[in-house]
């Protein structure tokens, strides 16, 4: 009973992780499509390179300085102070990426994350099977001991 429920939980968590990995790729594809539907090109200056985001400042086609709150898409290898050509969506200047980089850069991280999720799910599946089988054997051994040596019930 517990084994089946735990296996169902592992399958549900694994499926959720696969959907998240697919979302990584689909989200990148949709962002690129939005940029390509109304593109603008500008020379940007990298202002901050953080662990999770890289920020740039650039002047859009109307002369307004932009500093996207969500950071730059596909920022790998950039350093603070570096100037780089970017493409941005003129309808949403917060959506900006390094020129020449595409959504296909999200495939490798998504696939490697899927491999890690698969290994974790397989290890969890094996651990659940092993531990529940061991618990079942202990329960059966206790039952057979109790049948061979019945407990004396107190008589009134």
Automatic annotation (TrEMBL):
Ranges that cross the membrane: 9-30, 103-128
Identification of the protein by name: DUF3592 domain-containing protein
Domain of life: Bacteria
Record keywords, A-Z: Membrane, Transmembrane, Transmembrane helix
